[in-house]
Amino acid sequence: MIVEVINSKNIMLLVRQAVHKQDSGQFVSPVGGHVAAGEKNDQALLREAEEEIVIKDFRYKHLGNLIFDRVVRGKRENHYFIIYEIHADITLVLNDESDDYRWFSKKEINQNLTDNQGLLGEACILIWEKYLHPREVRRPS
After folding, report:
1. pLDDT digits (tens, 9 = 90+) for 84-110
2. Parallel, antiparallel, or unpaired for β 2-6 and 12-17?
3. What confidence score (pLDDT) does residue 57 get?
4. Fewer CB atoms < 10 Å away: N or C end of the chain?
5. Domain covering 2-132 in this structure, CATH number
6. Cα 88 vs. chain centroid, distance in angstroms?
């Protein structure tokens, strides 16, 4: 599961992964986790949001599902993402999985896709292009 957080100003929250995590040093979605056996997707969303960004009261929307196949640290991984969008105004308290966070406008994300390609994690880019802002992305080949 991957969860994007968007505030009332339509600005998206991203966290920078800590050195011991995959996508180290890159900004990624602030909530990600697994759906436990027997757990419903919405239950997992509520649990993961509380665990990772200490939030309980929010509106959310299911954006879709996708398969993300990639090689990480020399190992092939195939992830099935259930993607949600949370709408909330929060002040983030970082856990040990992240070392920084930042709110990005749509314009800033699109600009970084062109000018600073290593800033955002691969899954973050994939979700951005497919679900959040597909028409404005114009990256060089």
Report:
1. 999 999 988 888 889 999 999 989 998
2. antiparallel
3. 86
4. C
5. 3.90.79.10
6. 15
